[in-house]
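Purpose: get a first structural picture of the assembly so the mutagenesis plan has something to point at.
Setup: two entries, given in the order below. No constraints added.
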Amino acid sequence: MNCTWKIGGEAGFGIMTTGVLMAKIASRLGYSVFDYVEYPSLIRGGHNAYELTISDEKANSLKEKIDILICLNEETWKVNYAHLQSNAVVVFDSEQFTPQETKAYQMINLPMGKILTELKGQVVMKNTIALGASCALLGVNHQDIDKLITEQFEKKGKDVVEYNQLFAKKGFDYVMDNYNGLIQSVLTENKNQKQLLMTGNEAFSFGAVVGDCRFYAAYPMTPSSSVLTVLADWQQKTQMVVRHSEDEIAVVSSALGASFAGVRSAVGTSGGGFALMVESISFSGISEIPIVVFVSQRPGPATGMPTWTEQGDLLFAVNAGHGEFPKIVLAPGDIEEMIALTAKAFNLADIYQLPVIVLSDMYLSESHTTIKQSVLDNIKNQYKINRGKTIDRVDGDKYLRYQITDDGISPRLIPGLKEHYFQSNSYEHLQDGHTTEDGDERIAQVKKRAAKINTYFKNDFSAPSVYGNLENAKTVLVGWGSVKGILLETQKQIPDCAVIHFNHIYPLDKEKVIKLFNQDKRYILVENNSTGQFGKLLQMEIGVEIKEKILRYDGRPLTVREIVEKL
Amino acid sequence: MNVSTIQDFTGYAPTWCPGCGDWGIGIAIKSALVQLGLSPSEVGVVFGIGCSGNMNDFLNAYAIHGLHGRAIPTAIGYKLANHKMPVIVVAGDGDCYGEGGNHFLHACRGNHDITVIVHDNRVYGLTTGQVAPTAMKGAVSKSTPYGLIETPLDPLALALTQGASFIAQSFAGDAPHMISTIKSAINHKGFSLVNILQPCVTFNKINGYQYYRERVYTLTDNKKDDKNQAMKIIQDIGKEKYPIGIIYQNQKAAYHEQLQQLLNNPLVKHERYLDFELLEKDFI
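Result (structure tokens, whole complex):
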């Protein structure tokens, strides 16, 4: 079973809330889901759409064709009818408009306007009517809807719960009474499999808590903002200090101050805000103060297209910061990887005492997917806090913050220990932290910092994941970060196809990576940007050139069909 | 009880110009810390970049020598992670009022419990003598050879209007006054500003020791919690009369005192949060 449901209407009328309720219903029944929202950078007006793929198997990306389309306005019809499955069900309200040329589809004229008038409902309740109708079409038990509505709205009071239940029931009953023959009964089975429904941003937030992050600062910027709001909402439970500061420079500076004092700290932003933080990334590099930086990309340059997606900031992240210093860049491919790698990022920051960047993008940050409770439990149970050489006592008399060591890592004392003190310095420094301009001391510190990279390769770098049989494959799709799910779906449609997916993006261990690329295969680089940035990185770091590229940069995620067509 | 000494706080030998006001400020800060009974391991200091910030090598503490303009937000994070530690910012006028001006405003309105000691010499010393935000209109410098067009920034009025709860001024030529003012500032719960009028003997030939000695006056009986009176006092500066002392002080909750999570232990001493199941409920 694989079903795609889409709802569209005017922005500002609760489309997304309704969509997520639908996703939760499917998730609770044990189905795998994947969703994607389209919305303009506006609060009211413009067109919103929410698309949801529900599947028996793991849903990695959106399905190409729509099975059920809910049109809350005419624009939804106009934009989407070309993408309908041949026997698709279309829900509309003839009070608003009536679709033309509809012979191929099953039409449901749902009198949402009339129900609103009869019950004196607010316009936003059209969504709830549509939700009820959709549940009926998919064969969902009515009690399941009532239960979800109760739990979602109980904070707002009993009246709100009952009000929503009433309208959902109206939509539900209308389909049952008038369109019984169209009921598809695809969501009848309860798979008894406990699941959670999360966005990439929620997964980062959860991973940060698992990773014992205690200080998070941000300045709101789409598509990263929901990390700030989720963590702020949780703060009285988690006891995390969550700050919305005056600007991104204050954000990153305060996080570095907190990290110096000994707490795991993170910041979150998108490309423009990250640009403002870059001097501090360099400061983290030389002062060796750990920090985790979450960057959720959107199409730039400058303000770009705030609510759309792109993988356009990869090389910017890799090269962020003046001067030469090591940093680590991770790019999770889905929410499971997001949780695990975010928690890992806090370990890496502490172990290597440097900035760790976790790259996401709007597509991963804002799309909901399901994760099995058992998978989540596994991530939590396997995670161990590792603070590396962080110390709270000193052996011997003199503590040297920037002590020269073979692995490049110096013991990092948590400030406050009696009889000791030290400074972390943004100037080049002696081993004790004091400023220096001496050439030999400079070389020693540059080498010490650079030595961390080999230690990282030895202990913590993960080679890319290979999906499928690389040895026998003729075609190899290569990607990084959020394209993972799309590549895995594409792989199913291409004979003799393997996928190489990177989530440890930088630095790249040549020894572990090159053997995947020096074989006689058709390698194809797939990226959500216009210049093939990861291809350039591979060339620079590994010396491998991938000549064939499939790139998309219109602000939309790649689709399986376009990749298959271009192959 | 171990009593610390000036020597305990003394790091490397200062590299300031002979006669620079920073020498006096450096000694005053150390004296204030000693008199408060603190040791270098009990004090957090965040230094800006500039001649003032170079005190990083001369003053022992758990210190950060950060980026130009960013000492204040860095100190705010430091304080929130360990609110039992007094956290002091040592920076210049260019750092706090120019490059980091936005942070200064917001630190005042947050009433973060940090003490900001500004070396206000009205000039950029470390970059060899360009005008600072507090330079007087018409000031001739390397970057303003035909005279500065802007009027000087008024840090005390800014602090007062943006919600700082302790605002003081002192003079680098008056060590006892600086010591007592810095002590009061560190003891104050909430955002405290000590703007220190500091002669730069190398690059500011106008606002030297003699200039200030003729124009400073000590506040003695001002009503410290009276905002209107404070504003009147501050307006004297425009007439080249420089009040020194505590201009304004009131008691209100500091930022960290209003965070439920920081009511008891400092953040750095918290136990790891482990009730993940409670958070998972949001996703079911």
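Chain A is about 40% helix and 20% strand.
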